[in-house]
């Protein structure tokens, strides 16, 4: 562990390489969540008294005040995402491993989530959601400075997707912290039962810094709707946004940022760490499908906060994301169960639980971007696709992805991201996308091009895959050189509960 902390300190010291330098360090950094102050009231007519004209010209509109309903919904959504991770993901993964590794998985999820939350507060939020360049943010919110507005004597506000509507920035920061945390924890399933605890933490810290933060910035950072005050400033505001946002990529709640990003990191890790001892010769059956079912149920419930919370308001788009999350997961459960019945003659509890997660993954980028019919189709296709991902594709890749992170999150994320471009179309019941943020007007059915949007989605998927793969490869290699990635064969056979943590999940 001493080596781990030393390496983390070294990573922090060399962080923010020259390639990530801000394009204009002298200019004050504006956060993605900063709301531009409304313009001054127009001066009175020329005939008005000079004194009244001066007074009117100096007056400004009152500060925007967050709606308590929006704030309450976002706090609840944040809590739901925490529940998705601990206990949801921890129990889902824990039930899938052998009993001798149950606690090791729980420990990895809980500690990794905690570590990422701390790193998020220290520098993660700033580099993901403040103005820097197209690939990484700046230093305006390091250590969360500026969240409390001393001049105004209140908390800074964060933009939503509606003009003149804000939430407290501290709430937005907390909500996004849970996204970063669960994304890192998803990776753990790919190398479960054989990685060193310290190596897992060091890798996740590096990957979070150099993969999660840039991808989140590229996809989700923009200046907010209130920045688009007139046609003359549109190009300037667009140029300050993240690279993939500028491109027009749609990702409502994290198909690229969360699922594809994490899945690729897990796949690379599974290759580099190698197969578990006895893989292909011994049975690696889940030790408790009951716990896996409980974990899947908690994930499903928590996912409503994950997807519907990404609307950032308690409005119609939150409701759309909510029902789409419900129906897509249900459709994927049916699809996976039907697929198993056709392939194996029986539908399994493990399959139903996996199908629910597959549908949730697939609908994540689409949640508020497609109609209910589109969500149903995405759920069905996602369920079948992920079933193939954990069976046929896994064999083709020849990799020991322990808990099928790539098969579910990678395949499901890619399918969902691409189909978002299809079913966002108004012709297929989708809400379309904003074509002009000055007037907040939507692209019409006649102007919407499915082919063009799918191509944009495909480029976003490709960039995410390449970025995460390169960062992961370098990070795993560094960890292997400094700490070593894998426990010894003896420790692996004994089980990581005892060899890494000195305790057992079950006493005989």
From TrEMBL:
Domain (Ammonium transporter AmtB-like): residue spans on this chain: 73-506
Signal peptide: 1-21
Membrane disposition: Multi-pass membrane protein
Key word Protease present: no
Regions that span the bilayer: 73-93, 105-123, 170-192, 199-223, 243-272, 284-305, 317-338, 350-368, 374-393, 405-423, 454-476
Pfam families for the chain: Ammonium_transp
InterPro entries, per the entry: Ammonium/urea_transptr (IPR029020), Ammonium_transpt (IPR001905), Ammonium_transpt_CS (IPR018047), NH4_transpt_AmtB-like_dom (IPR024041)
Highest taxon of source: Bacteria
Keywords (A to Z) from UniProt: Ammonia transport, Membrane, Signal, Transmembrane, Transmembrane helix, Transport
Record family assignment: Belongs to the ammonia transporter channel (TC 1.A.11.2) family.
Protein's UniProt name: Ammonium transporter
Organism annotation: Roseateles oligotrophus
């Amino acid at each position: 562990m001493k080596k781990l902390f030393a390496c983390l300190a070294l990573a922090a010291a060399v962080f923010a390489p020259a390639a990530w330098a801000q394009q204009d360090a002298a200019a004050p950094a504006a956060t993605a969540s900063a709301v531009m102050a409304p313009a001054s009231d127009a001066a009175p007519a020329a005939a008005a008294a000079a004194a009244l004209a001066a007074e009117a010209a100096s007056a400004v509109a009152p500060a925007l005040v967050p709606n308590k309903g929006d704030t309450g919904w976002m706090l609840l959504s944040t809590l739901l995402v925490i529940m998705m991770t601990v206990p949801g993901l921890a129990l889902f993964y824990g039930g899938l491993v052998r009993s001798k590794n149950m606690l090791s998985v729980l420990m990895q999820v809980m500690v990794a989530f905690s570590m990422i939350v701390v790193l998020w507060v220290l520098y993660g939020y700033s580099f993901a959601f403040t103005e820097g360049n197209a690939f990484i943010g700046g230093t305006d919110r390091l250590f969360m400075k500026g969240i409390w507005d001393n001049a105004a004597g209140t908390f800074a506000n964060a933009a939503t997707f509606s003009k003149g509507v804000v939430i407290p920035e501290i709430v937005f920061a907390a909500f996004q912290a849970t996204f970063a945390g669960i994304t890192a924890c998803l990776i753990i399933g790919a190398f479960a039962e054989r990685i060193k605890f310290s190596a897992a933490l060091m890798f996740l810290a590096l990957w979070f810094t150099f993969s999660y933060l840039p991808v989140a910035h590229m996809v989700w950072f923009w200046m907010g709707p209130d920045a688009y005050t007139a046609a003359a400033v549109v190009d300037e505001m667009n140029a300050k946004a993240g690279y993939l946002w500028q491109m027009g990529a749609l990702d409502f709640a994290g198909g690229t940022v969360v699922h594809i990003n994490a899945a690729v990191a897990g796949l690379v890790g599974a290759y580099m760490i190698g197969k578990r001892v006895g893989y292909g010769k011994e049975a690696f059956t889940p030790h408790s499908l009951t716990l896996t079912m409980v974990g899947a149920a908690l994930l499903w419930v928590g996912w409503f906060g994950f997807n519907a919370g990404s609307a950032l308001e308690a409005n119609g788009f939150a409701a759309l994301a909510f029902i789409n999350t419900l129906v897509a997961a249900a459709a994927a459960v049916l699809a996976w169960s039907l697929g198993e019945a056709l392939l194996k003659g029986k539908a399994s509890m493990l399959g139903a639980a996996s199908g629910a997660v597959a549908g949730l993954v697939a609908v994540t980028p689409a949640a508020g971007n497609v109609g209910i019919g589109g969500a149903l189709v995405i759920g069905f296709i996602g369920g079948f696709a992920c079933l193939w991902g954990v069976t046929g594709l896994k064999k083709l890749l020849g990799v020991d992805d322990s808990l099928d992170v790539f098969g579910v999150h990678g395949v499901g994320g890619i399918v969902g991201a691409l189909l978002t471009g299809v079913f966002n179309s108004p012709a297929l019941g989708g809400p379309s996308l904003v074509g002009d943020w000055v007037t907040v007007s939507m692209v019409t059915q006649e102007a919407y091009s499915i082919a063009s949007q799918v191509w944009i989605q495909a480029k976003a998927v490709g960039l995410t895959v390449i970025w995460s793969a390169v960062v992961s490869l370098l990070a795993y290699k560094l960890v292997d050189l400094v700490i070593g990635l894998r426990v010894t064969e003896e420790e692996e056979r004994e089980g990581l509960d005892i060899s890494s943590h000195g305790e057992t999940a079950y006493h005989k």
